[in-house]
Amino acid sequence: MDLSFILYLVAAFCIALGIAGIVLPALPGIPLVFLGLLLAAWSDGFVHVGWPVLTVLAVLTVLSFVVDVLATVVGAQRVGASRKALWGTFIGSIAGLFFMPVGLFLGPLLGALVGEYWHSRELGRSTRVGLATWLGILLGMALKVALLVAMLGLFAFAWLL
């Protein structure tokens, strides 16, 4: 078996896992996609896709981290979420993995709601914080999907040129 074939297989696996990681919070989605694209470029000796394109892809990968953190935090802070609400979001996201697929969406919402209720003992405020945090997560996910499409499109465009 040729080494480049193995690299292409590993690259495809990383890209597929990265696409799943856009939705699954336990997987680093965009970084896995970048790793897969880097492996695909490396497998042919960077003939089709060179370092300038890979540098742009790396910048988009770093941007995905910023988007991921800011979308959740800005959504939560816009309504004055407490630290406990943010921790609740994190714990709810992890716990939601065990109750797929509904848990992926309800886990962060319920985690933020419970965390804020623990902090403030106000159900209305806790509900607003939970919804704002959840909407921030959804916005972050949508932005990461846009980054993913841009990365795959740029790579495909560079490969075909």
Describe it for me?
There is one protein chain. With 161 residues, the chain is mainly α. 82% of the residues lie in helices and 0% in strands. The protein is built from 6 helices and no strands. Helix 1 packs antiparallel against helix 2 and helix 2 packs parallel to helix 6.
Major sheet attributes = none
- What ranges have pLDDT less than 50 throughout 5 or more consecutive residues? none
User: Given the structure, what is the number of helices?
Assistant: 6
> Separation of termini?
28 Å
Helicity, as a percent range: over 70%
Portion in beta strands:
under 5%
Q: What structural class do the secondary elements suggest?
A: mainly alpha
CA radius of gyration is 19 Å
* Number of E-state strands: 0
- The H-and-E topology, N to C, reads as HHHHHH
Oligomer: single chain
Kindly state the mean pLDDT as a whole number?
85
Note the overall shape: elongated
Keywords:
161 residues, 0% strand, mainly alpha
In short:
This protein is mainly alpha-helical and 161 residues long. The protein has helices spanning 3-21, 29-43, 51-77, 83-96, 102-120, 123-160. It is 82% helix and 0% strand.
Task: Please outline the helices and strands.
Layout: H1 3-21, H2 29-43, H3 51-77, H4 83-96, H5 102-120, H6 123-160
